[in-house]
Design a protein that fits this description.
This protein is mainly alpha-helical and 149 residues long. The chain has six helices and two strands, in the order H-H-H-H-H-E-E-H.
Length: 149
């Protein structure tokens, strides 16, 4: 880990007000949410923007992690009331970051935290075209408009 981490990484994330542990926790969220590498810094910006204003992260992958078991690490969570699942990992339930990482982040996700895009986005959701890309939005109304038909 130390051999791959850039020497200035701790300084970069500290400038964002994060400890190394918090940065790796965020990187784990990015790892589970991003399917397309060039979106990682944008997803990082959404997470950091939400944290900056005290908005819950509400990341679906944290619900999957909280419900997972050795036989099913990433269960289907369709139809579940995400806010009802009491877990320190469920970001619909707890404010701020989950109590720890939810995945082993790759280097691209780790670097995305330190090099987050400069955006005004607070929301994202998967596009409906099967590309595994996301639509990003500034307002909740825009986010709702990005829903699949």
């Amino acid at each position: 880990f130390e051999a791959r981490l850039p020497s200035n990484y701790r300084t970069q994330v500290a400038a964002r007000g994060l400890t190394l542990y918090q940065a790796i926790t965020i990187a784990s969220l990015i790892e589970r949410e991003a399917a397309v590498s060039d979106e990682r810094p944008v997803i990082a910006s959404v997470i950091l923007n939400r944290l900056a204003v005290g908005q819950r992260l509400e990341i679906d992958a944290t619900v999957q992690y909280a419900l997972g078991s050795p036989d099913n690490w990433w269960p289907n969570v369709g139809g579940l009331d995400f806010r009802s699942l009491e877990s320190p990992y469920n970001t619909y339930y707890v404010p701020g970051l989950p109590s720890g990482p939810i995945a082993n982040p790759g280097l691209d996700s780790i670097l995305a935290v330190a090099n987050a895009a400069d955006t005004n986005y607070y929301y994202y959701r998967a596009l409906c075209d099967g590309s595994r890309r996301h639509a990003f939005a500034v307002t909740y109304e825009e986010h709702l408009a990005n829903a699949c038909p």
